[in-house]
Amino acid sequence: MPPTSQEQSQRRDAIRELLTNKPAATQASLVRALGRLGLAATQSSVSRDLREIGAIKTPHGYELPASSDT
Length: 70
Fold this sequence. Notes:
Layout: H1 5-21, H2 27-36, H3 43-53, E1 56-58, E2 61-63
Antiparallel strand pairs: 1-2
């Protein structure tokens, strides 16, 4: 059964929160972290979510772009 838009929204919010705290080395590490939070995720769903929220891959892992508060 495909996830509802509410489940996708909760998962994306959780990914944003996780990436705010520290970069994620791999998509698999995000899948595991989401699982610990009780959110169902697969590598492909996390990949789509990362693209949707605008996360970028850096040498440190997946991160949210720096805010432009200069």
